[in-house]
Amino acid sequence: MNLGKVVGTVVSTQKDGKLTGAKLQVVRQVDLEGAETGAFVVAVDAVGAGPGELVLYASGSSARQTAVTKDRPADAVIMAIVDSLEVEGKVVYEKP
Known about the structure:
Elements: E1 2-10, E2 24-30, E3 36-45, E4 54-59, E5 76-81, E6 84-87, E7 90-94
Parallel strand pairs: 3-5
Antiparallel strand pairs: 1-2, 1-4, 2-3, 4-5, 6-7
């Protein structure tokens, strides 16, 4: 699992039929303080995340383990929206 921030959306009218109806989000990996650190990834949104939200996402074969992505050509999936994040006893993020 990776920690990321939803920074955009992808709209595609022409795609593999197995992706029809899938919401695609642009996610950028962040560190434990919320600073953007990684590259961008396009992920299938399995939980209804929105722009600016902190999320957990998986990539690789793990991305096809949700009900939304099972047997779909997905390499990344958003599987959780973070409500709060605590590191070493200190709350470093709380959803507004």
